[in-house]
Amino acid sequence: MTVVAADAAVSQVDAAAAAASTRPRCSTEDMLQLLQDYDCWVFDLDGTIWRGNEVIEGVLEALELLRKLGKKVLFMTNNSMKSRGSYLDKCLQVGLPAHVDDIYCSSYSAAAYLDSIGFDRSKKAYVVGERGIMQELAAVGIESFGGPDDNEKRASFSSEMLHDTQVGAVVCGVDPNLSYYKVQYASMCLLLNPGCLFIATNTDARGHFTPNLEWAGAGATVGAIKGVVERDPIVTGKPSPFLMQDIAAKHNVQPAKSIMVGDRLDTDILWGLNTGMATLLVMTGVTDEQLLVAQRGSSNGVKPHFVMDSFGDLRRVAQQALQQQK
Amino acid sequence: MTVVAADAAVSQVDAAAAAASTRPRCSTEDMLQLLQDYDCWVFDLDGTIWRGNEVIEGVLEALELLRKLGKKVLFMTNNSMKSRGSYLDKCLQVGLPAHVDDIYCSSYSAAAYLDSIGFDRSKKAYVVGERGIMQELAAVGIESFGGPDDNEKRASFSSEMLHDTQVGAVVCGVDPNLSYYKVQYASMCLLLNPGCLFIATNTDARGHFTPNLEWAGAGATVGAIKGVVERDPIVTGKPSPFLMQDIAAKHNVQPAKSIMVGDRLDTDILWGLNTGMATLLVMTGVTDEQLLVAQRGSSNGVKPHFVMDSFGDLRRVAQQALQQQK
């Protein structure tokens, strides 16, 4: 839950990092090579493109230059609070042109997964999370309830609780109104309804939902339910490779010509590694130098192919590449 | 979250269990032997002595007979909602005579643990759980806050959150008002306060806080926080052997002459095994035949020394032993 102050933090630890790191930051030559090697660029949003509502300096220009170079630019966020439509709105608001098909969010991933396995439409989904999950479920014809509609409900040991026996899946994501009631209701569905699926949009421990503070992520929701039902969920967002098929089919993308850019080792970079893409870690989000060095030194650590302080740093070389192309 | 209907459930599976079990239920001879071999009897409460507010048939008489035989009778519950004083009140209400020193609850275990390591009294504890934890902390001179006082607080991404940098321990137990706010506050203390301890009264997945339904236990609280801070808590209640020292010192008890009686394999029986006691599983709580058979068949399963359908079954042989003694 480090307060992000990337410039200051990085400069303080530069000396130690340079000694301990097995790979330094991308050089200008590295960046030019990346622009040559990869046609499809998949970006995480929070901590990579923006922090809360503030776009990270230089990132919009770097993305614009990528597009001028003819690159496919996609966005993939584990934040399950919104639907793809809402993310599109946010992209447009911050001055980042996009199409809804360019956006992959974990609320969509949960709906796409249930759709892909032919989820019985006579069953319902119980949602512990935000409206975005319910919107994406509705878009594939799956009835859901719970979510923000259950925010005010409270469990009481003085009255018994009933649950809907037609719930065939519990879908959970980050929920700023997580409550004992919701955990209990979800657990009853999972423990008492035969075959009820436990779906996690993601298991991120923390997220930068506001610029200066890390907040409890979907890891809180998943952890609470898992602590009761004693089984692991099916994860549909990063680092699960599930969405790669969808991306490959829609955008005619080859993993070998693609690069994942993100701020989290355990989701963004792991997802890229799991799907056969190149990976580029940026230090503008949750990963600090200490964590990066620790992972690099660990035999089972998640090791990104490339590291940059900020994706905004690319704007200089992208400009250069563009001029060379002319 | 099986609805407990012990008599019916056991009779239905008797045939299968007899074939699959490596050890059948205690015979009359076994019970008489137990009465001869063990001087100290430690009992779980929920699911062993009572379910919710209903005492299990025959158990009070069996306990009375044990005491007439000169046995030491202690109670140990992982339910952290109440203090020892409150449990004493409940025991007396249901007609079970006891002294506060005979009662061990996990709220006490957390306070006793912090006391045992010399917790700095200039620091505070943040509690995610019920008032009982705060009462036991106060009894050893540790200032705490949170608990039920935070039930109505809500986190909001539209305003930043502050936390008390003087929190030196987060103590969590079952919390029927678990909320995102509490999880976030606890996580901030654990992630931002250097050396802040993560204490779990227990990690029980579920508990029979009402007679006919299983409810989310401390596992929900611990799981939610663990899902954010990505580290394991120090567990002070069952199955942690921590309280055995306290019991041995106060009651002059030897593990080899003691037997743990409980309904949970992963807490009661494991605690008994961890502390070198004999163990007696009763089938009046969360363990069903299927789970028992699965554990017995597993190489790393938790295997009780003895099994009885209900501790109330002992009343017949205890009566017999008492008559022989005269």
Automatic annotation (TrEMBL), chains A, B:
Its cofactor is Mg(2+). Its EC number is 3.1.3.18. It holds the Pfam family Hydrolase_6. Substrate binds at K238. Mg(2+) binds at D44, D46, D263. It comes from the Eukaryota. It catalyses: 2-phosphoglycolate + H2O = glycolate + phosphate. Belongs to the HAD-like hydrolase superfamily. CbbY/CbbZ/Gph/YieH family. NCBIfam families: HAD-SF-IIA, PGP_euk. PANTHER family: 4-NITROPHENYLPHOSPHATASE-RELATED, PHOSPHOGLYCOLATE PHOSPHATASE 2. This is phosphoglycolate phosphatase.
